[in-house]
């Protein structure tokens, strides 16, 4: 009989950050988190950690592996997240589209991936129908901006950006 293969080692838990006397006063961003994903890449250098005080801007390339620290205070910590990206790119990690209840009944992850955009559109249409049924007007909530998709040209065909 062949010997049992050894189990793969569990990844080490991330160390607890040092307590902050005012956890709401700053935002911490770690680039290249030191875990197994980084260890597997020979091009990764040292881990870089940045702290920003309230009101500061942090600018970095979103393609880098990054994460922010948790707000462990009882106070809200508002922040603005802005990405300067190609117009076709959507941050699906941080901003998930809403799906209808029936979406859960789809048979496979592949089917969900295939139909997710259409189901999001259906979800929006259902919400608009509910709003109309309650006497609301969806057009009141919509933008009047008419841009030509995929090129950001105005109605005369002139480039806006």
UniProtKB/TrEMBL annotation:
Residues 1-25 are annotated as: Disordered. This is Uncharacterized protein. Residues 1-21 have a biased composition (Acidic residues). It comes from the Eukaryota.
């Amino acid at each position: 009989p062949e010997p049992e293969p050894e189990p793969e080692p569990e990844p080490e838990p991330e160390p607890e950050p040092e307590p902050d006397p005012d956890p709401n006063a700053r935002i911490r961003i770690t680039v290249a988190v030191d875990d197994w994903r980084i260890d597997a890449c020979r091009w990764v250098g040292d881990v870089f950690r940045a702290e920003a005080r309230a009101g500061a801007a942090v600018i970095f390339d979103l393609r880098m592996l990054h994460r922010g620290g948790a707000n462990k205070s009882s106070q809200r910590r508002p922040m603005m997240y802005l990405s300067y990206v190609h117009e076709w790119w959507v941050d699906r990690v941080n901003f998930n589209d809403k799906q209808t209840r029936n979406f859960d009944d789809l048979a496979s992850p592949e089917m969900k991936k295939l139909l997710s955009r259409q189901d999001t559109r259906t979800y929006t249409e259902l919400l608009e129908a509910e709003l109309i049924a309650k006497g609301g007007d969806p057009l009141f909530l919509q933008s009047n901006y008419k841009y030509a998709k995929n090129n950001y040209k105005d109605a005369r065909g002139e480039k806006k950006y």
